[in-house]
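Summary of Year 1 activities. Much of the first year was spent building the evaluation harness for sequence design. The harness presents a backbone, in tokenized form, and records the residue chosen at every position. We chose the following record to illustrate the format because it has been used consistently in internal testing since the harness was completed.
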């Protein structure tokens, strides 16, 4: 019987997906659910802006239930913490021992996570922490992880990258100074296939929009559209 019952903080992106892949290799660990914050005003995953319907299809494809944490827009930190406290109370009732995060190296983010879980009886896990992000990005791609860029910060990376696939060509095209995994917020992704999936999620890229200073590429389920083409 697994000694660690884990919820995985799930952004829908490649790092979350790879953290799941890693955790499934760890003896004594069972990932029992995906924890996702959803912008209640728009019905989309916070920051990555992935539609709830696409999120649900993705969770089904990796074979795990979703724990959605609805948050308002805008969401002051106080309200975010209240929403997370409610989710953590549920986690304790369900016997969750740890929450895992796909963070790579940002110390301030890690300290925030650790402080959020302090005194809750639930411990944090960081299965990808300290990895060389260039090597990690190449490892993901070589293993068959497929993802598309859903959000780009145009102050750090050209808006033209929104909607592109996360692949070797993209890594080669990234400007000097942009983290290969986008860890400093240069870009965010949606993972739609890979070794952690039971089957790929068939998606297409819709409209690209500038909103709140970020460029978003709308990911949609292919079967819901009359004329589907794959991610570009």
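For this record, the design step produced the sequence shown next.
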């Amino acid at each position: 019987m697994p000694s660690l019952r884990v919820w995985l903080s799930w952004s829908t992106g490649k790092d979350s997906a790879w953290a799941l892949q890693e955790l499934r290799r760890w003896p004594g660990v069972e990932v029992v659910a995906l924890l996702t914050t959803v912008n209640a005003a728009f019905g989309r995953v916070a920051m990555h802006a992935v539609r709830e319907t696409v999120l649900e299809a993705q969770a089904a494809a990796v074979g795990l239930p979703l724990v959605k944490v609805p948050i308002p827009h805008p969401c002051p930190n106080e309200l975010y913490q209240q929403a997370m406290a409610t989710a953590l109370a549920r986690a304790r009732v369900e016997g969750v021992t740890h929450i895992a995060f796909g963070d790579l190296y940002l110390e301030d983010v890690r300290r925030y996570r650790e402080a959020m879980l302090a005194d809750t009886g639930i411990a944090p896990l960081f299965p990808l922490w300290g990895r060389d992000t260039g090597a990690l990005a190449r490892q993901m791609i070589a293993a068959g992880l497929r993802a598309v860029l859903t959000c780009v910060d145009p102050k750090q990376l050209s808006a033209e990258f929104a909607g592109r696939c996360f692949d070797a060509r993209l890594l080669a095209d990234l400007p000097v100074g942009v983290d290969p995994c986008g860890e400093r917020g240069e870009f965010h992704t949606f993972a739609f296939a890979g070794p952690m999936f039971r089957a790929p999620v068939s998606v297409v890229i819709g409209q690209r929009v500038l909103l709140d200073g970020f460029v978003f590429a709308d990911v949609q389920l292919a079967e819901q559209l009359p004329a589907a083409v794959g991610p570009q």
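Residues 77-93 form the longest helix (17 residues). Quantitative recovery figures across the full test set are reported in Table 2.
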